């Protein structure tokens, strides 16, 4: 459920659009900013605010990988294994990070399609911040730098402020 401040913000966002359904993506970002993921209550509330079905909201959430349908850690690590990264070591990075952080609830490792950083392959993102030309070891060092506070992570969602 939106906090009272965020509910007010959601209504302000909706008022910007001639058709309320156009506010769906901004409201999903707002919900993810609040809770860190899109839970069932948020989907139901957003559907009600926009006069959509819950299936409409779920369909949009599940289409965009940026929206998380389960709780994720503080650090979302998105590892590309698409063609250029595939041939330059992306899968080895993915497997190393999955194994290294398997029991760490703060680090959520996911495999993603091309991050449009092919010139710097293999690439990954930490909370949507790019890192390129990696090895399994340098990728782990970068993540550990975030975890130790040597690097500052941006918020998980890039939604409306
Ligand atoms: S294939 Fe990995 S960034 Fe494009």
Describe this structure in words.
This protein is of the alpha+beta class and 161 residues long. It has 2 domains: 60 residues, Arc Repressor Mutant, subunit A (Orthogonal Bundle); 73 residues, Glutaredoxin. It contains 7 helices and 4 strands. A 4-stranded mixed sheet has the order 2-1-3-4, covered by helices on one side. A hairpin with a 2-residue loop joins strand 3 and strand 4. Helix 1 packs antiparallel against helix 2, helix 2 packs antiparallel against helix 3 and helix 6 packs across helix 7. The two termini are 18 Å apart. It binds FE2/S2 (inorganic) cluster. FE2/S2 (inorganic) cluster binds next to helix 5.
Draw up the topology in text.
Blueprint: H1 4-15, H2 24-35, H3 40-50, H4 54-63, E1 75-80, H5 83-88, H6 90-100, E2 107-112, E3 124-126, E4 129-131, H7 136-147
Parallel strand pairs: 1-2
Antiparallel strand pairs: 1-3, 3-4
Helix pairs in contact: 1-2, 2-3, 3-4, 6-7
The structure holds FE2/S2 (inorganic) cluster (FES).
